Amino acid sequence: MYKLLQRQIPNAWRRAARIHFCSVELFYSSMAFQATLRRLSLRVPSKMKALVYSKVGKVELQDRPAPKIASPTDAIVKLKYSTICGTDLHIRKGEVATCAPGRVLGHEGVGIVEQAGEMVSRFKIGDEVIISCISSCSSCEYCRRGMPSHCTTGGWILGNKIDGTQAEYVRIPHADSSLYNVPKGVADTASLVSVSDTFPTAYECGTLNGKVQPGSTVAVVGVGPIGLAVMATANFYSPSKVIMIDMDENRLKVASEMGATSTIRSGPGTDVVKEVLAQTDGKGCDVVIEAVGIPATFELCQRILAPGGVLANIGVHGTKVDLFLNELWEKNISITTRLVDAVTTPTLIKMVEARKLQPDRLLTHKFKFSEIEKAYETFGNAAKNNALKSDPHIQERLAFADHCFLHIKLGTMSDEVQPDADWTAQPPYQSASHRSDYVPRHRGSCHCGRIQYSLAREEPLASKYCHCRDCQTLHAAPFQWAAIFHKADMVFDNGTEGLAFYRSATRKLGHDLPCKVSCEYCRTPIMDEGRNMVLLFPTLIRFGNEEDRRRFRPQCHIFYSQRVVDIPDGTVKWTGLDGKSEKMDVA
């Protein structure tokens, strides 16, 4: 084992080693080698790109020191996706006193755990996580009362009091209670940035505070991402009517497509109060949600309430508003306000898993991370640009949120490695849902679990022990157990956006067949892909029983060039070079 770890990898392979990682389980030594390489490969660099609030009215992309573990409860997360919140725009305008110039912005994101403090027990390196907009210690007085937004060592600190998520890396305090695992089976993980803040805010401050009940009538004033998320979560409780009110025709169209009972376009010449009363038999609405944050909309909300109604305010008001107590007191009206606590995030994640909540419907724009300043301009002119949320790219992509919904992708395949445009429509990248004849027999995954696939055949076309130099270098083992299938026998169930491609013949990255395919995050080699066939590694397959495993038993050893060694196991052995092979005498 000592010699294996000390062996220097040839220069030509060093680039490949960053993409491919050990999958061998035949020898404990190679598993230890794999763990050693993973620890080395996941180290956080000293510098990173980050979006910084430099002065009032200006944000800019800068080189900043990468974060480090400051407490045993911290985790360092490499961002895949982030998003711009309306609050970030308020910060840029200088309207948030707690956020000083020089701060890295952003409090929403999806990423990969790169480092974890000694006291972090719920997450490990390589886990894909959703970052909560609220950091919670889970033990202070306020956290115990269900108010982590007022946590004495947390609360809303990301992108406010400490550096945030619009960067390549972010430090997450109290990681065990401030991160959530990405749910399995979600194809578009970029959309999960809205589970960081948008959906918890809408659900807690709007739907729950508003006491939406079966059969109630609901009006939502302000149809940005928050307003649309209120509509989506209010439908958990089967209201009889949901009326969406906004000045923007595009947003009202989106609301209709997402299931609004009716829409009202406000503005000059429209008597919104009269239209609401006409739709509610003159009574008004049982629940009215204010999701804008200006005096005019707060006043409108008061005038369309039914007796006994609840006005749930979500909008962030930068100035005082009028409260018509002379008209409200006799109608038994309740008014609620709240800062999101994100205590409902686990519930919302379950709703996403059950497809009761579809956050991907809120994403409208995508940007590279290098274009994040442009994304701010798009987001700041949401109505003009028909924007809800957008997607710039942090490792070359990021993702963004509130009156506009942007999604900026931070850490997937780089542009130079992107395969052909139609690659996802071909086996094995084609979804099983598009193949009525596809019945999975076996399932497998990479070591971190992001890449998942299934096989339709009960046994491979052939199985072998491969002794080539590629396997010895990339798998860090004397040989590798490999099984051959038709490409149509296999489909990826999850994680294709996290695949990396490498062609060993040319020593270049890219989906140029034949090539090696691996998980970009944990470096596990998934398969060798040819034009019509794939070569898989059975050590990654979850066999249901020993009989299934025996079906994959290797039928021979394949040696190349001068790497022939005596392995007296009775299995047929072949040796050859440049496509010429001959059977070896094993007597």
From TrEMBL:
**Domain named CENP-V/GFA: residues:** 442-561
Superkingdom of source:
Eukaryota
Q: Which SMART domains match?
A: PKS_ER
**Coiled-coil ranges per the record?**
none
InterPro entries, per this entry?
ADH-like_C, ADH-like_N, ADH_Zn_CS, CENP-V/GFA, ER, GroES-like_sf, Mss4-like_sf, NAD(P)-bd_dom_sf
Q: Which UniProt keywords apply?
A: Metal-binding, Oxidoreductase, Zinc
Task: Enumerate the Gene3D superfamilies for this protein.
Answer: glutathione-dependent formaldehyde- activating enzyme (gfa), Medium-chain alcohol dehydrogenases, catalytic domain, NAD(P)-binding Rossmann-like Domain
UniProt xrefs under CDD domains: FDH_like_ADH2
Concerning Pfam families, the annotation shows: ADH_N, ADH_zinc_N, GFA
Which GO molecular function terms does the record list?
A: carbon-sulfur lyase activity; oxidoreductase activity; zinc ion binding
Q: Which cofactor does it need?
A: Zn(2+)
* Family designation: Belongs to the zinc-containing alcohol dehydrogenase family. Belongs to the Gfa family.
* Protein's name in the database: CENP-V/GFA domain-containing protein
The protein's organism comes out as Lomentospora prolificans
